Amino acid sequence: MGANTIEEKIRKNYNGLTKSCQKIGEFLLKNMEEAAFFDISDFALEVGVSESTVIRFVRGIGYKGFPRMQEDLRTWLKERITPLGKMEKSVYKTPPDIYKDILENDIQNLNKLKKDFVYENFDEVVNTIIKSKHIYIIGYRTSFPIAYLLYMFLIEIIQNAEFLDFRGGEIYDRLIGLGKGDVLVAISFHRYSRVTSEIVKFVKSKKCKIIGITDSPLSPLGEIADIVLSVERSNPAFFNSYVACLSLINCIVGGISLKKEKDAIHILKMGAEVLKQ
What are the per-10-residue average pLDDT scores of the chain (277 residues)? Predict the structure, then answer.
């Protein structure tokens, strides 16, 4: 058991919790390292709720008591999913072992994506992008290559997509005309980019629809996006895995290409003609 187990419990039961218990869940997801060291009274004080509310929360997400949840938190802490912690752990493995672990982990991430796949969510994303006047795509730091790949795929089948990067700091100037009918696809994972969060908030104020691709519906991006697609990135090596995220991107692009088949074929033919020149 570990942080992912606790996160899944919170996600699964979040909507059925009271507002006070939801507050605890949000705090816990953002402060797991700290929470591993709190006793129940300190935890309640830190969150700003009563001890009885903490007990209701713990039982509401499926634990028999606070100590049992603490066990999971401390187990996770021993296996800290940080680049340094994972590197220190992986250097003791021989190459065949770590390769097998990475491959098996990627398969598990893909199986989780398949298990959690909700057709209606993906269809809503596809239809929202197709119906939009203009599509903006953003992702910084390690999310940058995933966001750019999505952009490169989309411009092969539709013509109203734009990738947002700094380009000399003029990003907000490029969003001045954005508004209702436009869509922002934002990608952000743990160690969330402050820049992405600020831009998403700005775009939200312009009445633009936001599609978030992240690791939890309760992440900073997940809390503000209109449609949230969450994906697992765990990896036994020191870096995070993006295999499941790439598969998710493939699903989105595949759905759009099927629904925009005639337009996609036309654009691809135009591209082929240009390449002949």
Answer: 66 88 88 80 89 92 88 69 51 63 83 82 89 90 89 86 73 77 88 81 87 83 86 69 88 85 55 49
Same CATH fold assignment for domains 3-78 and 116-276:
no
pTM of the predicted protein model:
0.65
Residue 122 sits at φ, ψ, to 5 deg, of -65, -40
> Domain 3-78 adopts which CATH fold?
Arc Repressor Mutant, subunit A (1.10.10)
Please tell me the class of the 116-276 domain.
Answer: alpha beta
Extents of the domains making up the chain: 3-78, 116-276
